[in-house]
Design a protein that fits this description.
The protein is an all-alpha fold and about 325 residues long. About 40% of the residues lie in helices and about 0% in strands. The N and C termini lie far apart (about 65 Å).
Length: about 325
Amino acid sequence: MSPTATPCGTLEGQKDPACGCGPDLRWCRYGSNYLRINKSMAEAFEKRIAAVIGDDLPYMALFEDKRAWINGPISFFLHNQVGVPRINRFTPRALPLEDIPVLDFLDDTWVEITLPDYHSGLLTDPMYLLRFQTNRSRANRFYNGFLCEPFEAPEKGIALASTLHPDLQQREGCDYCHGRLEPAAAFWGRWGETGAGYLNPVDFPPLRADCETCALTGQLCGDDCKRFYLVNAASPAEEPYLGMLNSYVFRYDDHMKNVEAGPQLLAMKGVVDHRFPQCVSNRAVEQIFGRSTEVVDKDWIDMLAVDFAASNYSYRSLVKQIVMSDGYRRLR
């Protein structure tokens, strides 16, 4: 704390000359420091993938596994700098401070930790959340990468909207994609956009009284309300949602549960209806063959998907089956 009671490890502390950088430069985020933290987070992301494949776990463990790895730069950042924004925000914390091992910034040792249950594997990893910074882009990437269902307009195009309804699920033309995309985006509703913070249900209920009060009375809204809640209606259609968490705005009754369920449920839906094993098999063939599967026997890929599911979704078994195939032997 500064002499004027400003918490130094925050955005406000950066503006207080009495704070400075603190012991071990813990409150300052500068170029080389920032790059080293980013590199460590990318390596931690890769370690999570390698652990699932290396241990031959079911491929869905990518969205369920609660194991994560932390080294010195990540530990230093999570202990000291999540409250010091640099474009992206890591608050509210996605991991209790007491669960984070204390390591020196220069320590490259990797320590395995267990994440809380509200995490959904790679889909809520900081690298995924920061690479795809809006809930729509997070859902879009999942549909593209794991379900092979890109959000694209039909070949004949879409009709132009005569009126710009604020709910994209109802806007003419936009509804073609957003009828599916908006409910899917809601699965990331408890993860902050342009950041990697977790909005726990206790501190961030669907409707928060102070945010509703400031939205309806014109009083000054706090930072939480301005960042995560609807406090300014841009149209009459938004007025019923004033004071609500942004992820609940324009959600239909059937989609409300998506916010609390998290993206793990979205992934499991793709497994149940077979879109997931079909897509993973297709992507694996594309990667290994180095070409589009448009020139590959679709019946063979269908068989791969069935065998992939029968192997308890073993990605190693899938790859082995592909590289031992006659098609791969003949590949030039």
